[in-house]
Batch of 3 targets.
Target 1
Amino acid sequence: MCWSATADLAAGAGVAAVGAACVLRARRRTDLPLAALPLLLGAHQIVEARVWDTGGGTGPATVAWAVIALPLLAVWVPAGVLCAAPSHARRRLLLPLAAGVATAAALAQAMTVRPVRAEIRGHTMGYVIDLPQPELVIAGYLLATVGALLISGDRGLVLLGFLTGAGAVICWSLWELEFVSTWCACAAVVSVTLLGWVNSREAVAPRERVRQA
């Protein structure tokens, strides 16, 4: 989420390009879901450019934005972390995955009952959705996404969890004040960090194959 359609398009293209590099450089199939995350984030920002162009509302672009941001990411992130995490951490990662599935189901049900509405608020785009027990849904979402990274057992992903959590607090604060939307900056930081993580995994993989042989 950026402050204009032009900014969203530019940021989306840049983040997607980093995502393509992540996917091309990934050497483990189990890393591909997380490596592809910047591609999803880039597409998400490009979709929001269309929301800006249409002036918000409840149209297809708003629905597509909400589907990616809410139920899809709630499952994608913990599932990707579970795939990439070391074997000793996988059992505990079932908790954030379960939280993500439950949260995604609640979000999808809410979106089915009442349409999501986008509203232009100065230099931000606000999205309105009527959620039952919103505090519980938000807690489940954070456990599924940030929580999964923090307990992943991988130093690179733990760092990503701290950056994501801190970035989300800063961006949410600016967004709530309707000052400027900087979520696209958070997506860029996440994407570049993931590229560094993928590169570090590439360096480790050959040694692991030797040990296994």
Target 2
Amino acid sequence: MNKKIVVIIGGPSSGKTTLIEALKVKGHCCYPEISREVIKEAQEQGIEQLFLEKPLLFSELLLEGRKKQFVSAQNETSAIVFLDRGIPDVLAYMHYIGDAYPSFFDQACKDHKYNAIFVLPPWKDIYISDSERYENYEQAQLIHAHLMETYQKYEYSIIEVPKDTVEKRVDFIVKRLAI
């Protein structure tokens, strides 16, 4: 069996989690975004915004979590595994805030290659903020640009998912993957 590990990317509030949940409902193997988990754990320890207060630590925790997701995805029995964000997202966010990172971040992107990348573009009509999402819509657009640039640096062909209903977005991805 030829395993496909597929990543859904996009800036904050572009519909990634909703799309992953819809894919899961249709019976696809899906892994959730792990940053909310990291953020909540930090908040329980009294750090309100770990990404803002200790961006390198936050990014290292995300990098390790996403590497573990990649390995787990490889071991799934499903032929296709969908991930809500990938390893290059970590670097894109570091670029966004202008911080440097150790070379092992770059190496992790080279060592863990995905089969397909689908991007959800910024979409003002569905944009919302919450306790884990501090960015405004303009910042979300900048993050989107950094995501595109970072994934392209690692030579990924990025497929843009049209702004449409969740069902049509799922259908678009399924048809593109021929599943």
Target 3
Amino acid sequence: MSDLDLLTQSLARNVKHWRAVRGFTLDVLAARAGVSRGMLIQIEQARTNPSLGTVVKIGDALGISITTLLDYEQGPKVRVVPADQAVRLWHTDAGSYNLLLAGTEAPGPLELWEWRLMPGESSTSDPHPTGTAELVHVTAGELTLTVDAVEYRVPAGATASFEANTTHTYGNQGDVPMVMLMAVSVPPVQ
């Protein structure tokens, strides 16, 4: 499959996904984006390669980035952000700063949790509704995050984000307690 074919397929899949998450009909998205309903149908059926301007309009109407619309990844999306890749937006000489650990497209309610898992313990979660996103930031120990049967190691100081519409497990395979902060974004009820 060529890069262009891959982009066309990714755009089709992602426009359909985010339109469903937002609860938009084709007509609603067409009106919000200023794009014809016919063009949206062609995009969702991967029958056209729209201009960058059209992709930008659709992304803006859905409230998501172009990167998200053109994302090649299939299946559960998990992104681990190493501690040294968090973004510091400002700081002072006295030592104050803010740190953007990670972000994700979030359509609805957002929950913030603190978790502590003792060595050898784990907790499994059933799949959440489509569109649910989770962010976890490990402050102590190491999290073993399993999403759709794939293990990811998230050490202290690192952050991970993932779509939580599949079975996932938080585990501590280390010998010290694991502590993390977790934000859960749940899509609004349609």
